[in-house]
Amino acid sequence: MARTLSLDVSPDPFSADGPSTKPRGQGADALVEVANDTSSGTEACSLEELVYERLRLYAESLQGHYPEDMYRLIMPQLERPLIQIAMELSRGEKKSAAKMLGIHRNTLRARLRDLGMESAPRPRKSR
Fold first, then answer.
1. How far does the chain reach from its first CA to its final CA, in angstroms?
2. How far apart, in whole angstroms, are the C-alpha atoms of residue 78 and residue 64?
3. Which residue has the higher pLDDT, 96 or 24?
């Protein structure tokens, strides 16, 4: 069973106007649609449902063992791609990426550092 993930950002994220931070349709679930490619048709689910399904499979793979420190293990795996997408859409501009994420730019800098996603600092313009 193949799954595809489509991110609907409007207008074109690389246009002169920049990316839209507002999802179209019915709330945030309209932003992400996951389609199952099956012979019976296409089944759509929200990002939350997809994450729940994957976490449930992870829990089942533990075969009855008690998971420890799940939050510390799983949250970086969710946060890293979210920040990566914001950084790509903002073309590396931390201030814009932070605004997209709804966090302060200093918080974004700290998360980039903590997640090992820091890039080389930009050279300062000389006056």
1. 58
2. 24
3. 96
